[in-house]
């Protein structure tokens, strides 16, 4: 069988601190440090602790050229090679070997996952950052009300200044006051809602407008034979618009609670998973990591990027992953403004449980990157009115 290293691998020297009571009582240092190696490989979706011999072997095997397994076993030992194959840090291809006709199901799985990652053209560091920054089962500020600035100052001390000065004040150029404009009212009324009316429904026509004007195609253009781009109301890197909208409907007139995919061209909601009212509420809580001040929004949108739509052009590009994040930010701001225009409060958050959302939507994090959750709805009594012009 032939083997090679997985496509993307970051090996981190990690320190674990502990207490040495015996040393402390004898007058020495109480703090001890233990070092070990940790492998971060995006196709695994988990960390792997390595021994020094594992690191040495992985450092001698490239991710492109296949090598004979027998030669590695002779140099490093059969046990180490088998262990790294089992972990998925080495991948095999029996089809290219002379002795075996197929891989075991476990080894074939890691080979398939590695092939999927290679096919997307991720920048290695971006892939590691994306996969290992995802949450699962996280409960952010569970059971608490949204912390006020006073709460934060008491816990963390004074924040950095809201504005920073660069250069001398005597050199500053005074600018004229901005002229009033029709857009001012909309911009100044835009705020982040943190208390939604739990009984209010969003009319279907309004939900349709919000989705179409935020995520829908306003036009299609053929840039080459069978190669189209969409015109939307927000900018996108390369005009590619890779971000898809998945709607978690809780209270939309005429739409049963559940998960839907919004088709940007056909302007339809495609059912993904039917949910009861209680199931939709529970998924909303899980989605936003138990931030209940967001979970009551009647319409929530999971923004997930089809990475190959972007990386098809920006292959192994240092800025490609940033472009996906910018795209999601543009879309959320457009939704904010449309919601404000309709008299609704909006929100967007990156504090989300991506893994549970991927599972609910049937998405692979290597190909479809869940980035943020946004939403809107009528404000409930006592919403953060004092923050409306400050957030």
- Overall CATH class of the largest domain: Alpha Beta
Number of beta strands: 14
Multimeric state: single chain
Tally the helices: 14
Summarize model confidence as the mean pLDDT.
92
User: What's the order of the H and E elements?
Assistant: EEHEEHEHHEHHHHHEEEEEHHEHHEHE
SS strand fraction = 15-25%
N/C terminus separation: 58 Å
Looking at the overall shape, the CATH architecture of the largest domain is 3-Layer(aba) Sandwich
Give the low-confidence spans: 97-101, 386-391
Output the radius of gyration: 26 Å
Number of domains: 2
The structure class reads alpha+beta
- Overall 3D shape: globular
Largest sheet: 6 strands, antiparallel
Query: Which percent range fits the helix content?
Result: 25-40%
CATH topology descriptor of the largest domain: NADH Oxidase
What are the salient characteristics of this protein?
about 400 residues, alpha+beta, NADH Oxidase, 2 domains, three-stranded antiparallel beta sheet, disordered C terminus, Putative peptide maturation dehydrogenase, SagB-type_dehydrogenase, oxidoreductase activity, SagB-rel_DH_2
């Amino acid at each position: 069988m032939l083997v090679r290293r997985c496509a993307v691998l970051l090996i981190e020297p990690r320190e674990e601190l502990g207490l040495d009571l015996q040393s402390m009582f004898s007058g020495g240092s109480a703090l001890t440090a233990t070092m070990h190696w940790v492998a971060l490989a995006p196709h695994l979706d988990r960390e792997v602790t390595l021994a020094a011999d594992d690191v040495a072997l992985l450092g001698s095997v490239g991710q492109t050229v296949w090598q004979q397994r027998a030669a590695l076993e002779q140099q490093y030992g059969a046990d180490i090679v088998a262990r790294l194959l089992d972990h998925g840090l080495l991948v095999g291809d029996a089809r290219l070997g002379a002795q075996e006709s197929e891989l075991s199901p476990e080894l074939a799985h890691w080979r398939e996952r590695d092939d999927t990652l290679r096919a997307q053209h991720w920048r290695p560091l971006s892939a590691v950052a994306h996969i290992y920054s995802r949450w699962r089962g996280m409960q952010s500020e569970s059971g608490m009300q949204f912390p006020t600035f006073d709460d934060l100052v008491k816990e963390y001390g004074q924040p950095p200044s809201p504005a920073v000065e660069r250069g001398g004040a005597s050199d500053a150029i005074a600018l004229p006051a901005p002229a009033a404009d029709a857009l001012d009212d909309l911009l100044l009324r835009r705020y982040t809602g943190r208390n939604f009316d739990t009984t209010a429904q969003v009319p279907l026509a309004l939900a349709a407008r919000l989705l179409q004007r935020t995520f829908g195609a306003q036009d299609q253009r053929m840039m080459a034979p069978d190669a189209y781009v969409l015109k939307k109301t927000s900018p996108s890197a390369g005009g590619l618009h890779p971000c898809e909208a998945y709607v978690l409907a809780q209270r939309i007139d005429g739409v049963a609670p559940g998960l839907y995919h919004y088709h940007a061209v056909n302007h339809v909601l495609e059912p993904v998973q039917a949910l009861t009212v209680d199931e939709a509420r529970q998924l909303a809580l899980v989605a936003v990591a138990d931030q209940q001040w967001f979970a009551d929004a009647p319409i929530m949108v999971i923004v997930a990027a089809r990475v190959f739509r972007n990386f098809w052009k920006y292959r192994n590009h240092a800025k490609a992953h940033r472009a996906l994040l910018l795209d999601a930010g543009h879309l959320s701001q457009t939704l904010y403004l449309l919601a404000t225009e309709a008299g609704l409060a909006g929100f967007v958050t990156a504090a989300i449980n991506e893994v549970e959302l991927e599972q609910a939507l049937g998405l692979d994090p290597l190909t479809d990157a869940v980035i943020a959750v946004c939403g809107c709805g009528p404000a409930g009594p006592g919403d953060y009115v004092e923050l409306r012009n400050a957030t």
